[in-house]
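Q: Given only this backbone (311 positions), what sequence would you predict?
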């Protein structure tokens, strides 16, 4: 989701990629709007998918696509996050597209995944040429399945939340929502309207309330990325503390289902240092739970000891 790498089950990869193809179509429209003819766009995409019949590096893909199109291979500035290194690119219709941007376009027509790394370089390959027992899914079916996966994980939610998570225009997300309307149920949470799967209503209404355990969530944890409106998770005045500029999402402390602070981790040989920055004074029990989480983190990372500091 949102133009970044995600780890998903291989047998559901088609659902995630085909279900988000509307987002990739937006990138295709952007290139078309720059004056590149449809025939050139489709030819470039077909050449790239053909080049990924086996795992290849970005440079190898750019070389093969350029050769197929009969143009000289290019490079372009931009390695991401302020990196101004020159990276492989493809020339098409008067534009020079970095190969990483070409990958975004491919989601409108095909399904690709990561291959085995070649030293320090990643490789990319077509899913149908790489994954055992590959099963593709039509786009309309994938969109409906993706909405169900989303609501099973993040519901109750709204079409705006779903659109944000997938990266679709709101009108496209609503169209998928409407097609699934008979399987959805409206709910009210403290007066706010949202939606869940109809099959989940009985389990939600009969579930016994359980106070969620305290957790130290890592940066970019999926729990923080599923909603456009995050007021149920974080006080509005603290949003910019967690969701920083340039798309950075801080590691947070989740207590009682709400974000109560951030934390950082440093490692020095066999010792971990966990520094906690709470938004307000913490109770003794909350501090004790943070220390328990830190010791579990020490166990998981195989460190000899952990020091916890509360700012």
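A: Predicted residues:
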């Amino acid at each position: 989701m949102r133009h970044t790498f995600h780890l998903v089950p291989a047998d559901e990869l088609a659902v995630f990629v085909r279900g988000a193809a509307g987002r990739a179509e937006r990138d295709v429209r952007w290139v078309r709007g720059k004056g590149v003819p449809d025939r050139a766009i489709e030819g470039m995409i077909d050449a790239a998918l053909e080049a990924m019949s086996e795992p290849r590096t970005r440079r190898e893909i750019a070389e093969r696509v350029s050769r197929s199109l009969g143009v000289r291979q290019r490079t372009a500035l931009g390695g991401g996050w302020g990196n101004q290194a020159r990276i492989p690119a493809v020339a098409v219709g008067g534009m020079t597209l970095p190969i990483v941007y070409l990958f975004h376009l491919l989601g409108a027509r095909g399904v690709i995944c990561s291959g085995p790394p070649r030293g320090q370089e990643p490789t990319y390959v077509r899913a149908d040429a790489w994954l055992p027992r590959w099963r593709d899914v039509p786009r309309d079916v994938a969109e409906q399945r993706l909405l169900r996966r989303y609501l099973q994980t993040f519901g109750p939610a709204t079409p705006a939340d779903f659109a944000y998570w997938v990266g679709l225009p709101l009108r496209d997300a609503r169209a998928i929502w409407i097609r699934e309307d008979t399987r959805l149920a409206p709910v009210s949470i403290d007066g706010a309207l949202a939606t869940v799967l109809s099959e989940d209503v009985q389990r939600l209404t009969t579930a016994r309330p359980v106070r969620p355990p305290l957790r130290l969530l890592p940066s970019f944890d999926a729990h923080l990325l599923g909603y456009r409106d995050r007021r149920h998770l974080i006080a509005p005045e603290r949003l910019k503390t967690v969701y920083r500029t340039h798309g950075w999402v801080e590691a947070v402390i989740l207590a009682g289902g709400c974000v109560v602070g951030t934390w950082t981790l440093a490692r020095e040989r066999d010792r971990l240092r966990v520094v906690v920055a709470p938004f307000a004074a913490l109770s003794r029990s909350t501090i004790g739970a943070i220390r328990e989480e830190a010791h579990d983190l020490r166990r998981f990372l195989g460190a000899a000891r952990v020091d916890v500091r509360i700012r």
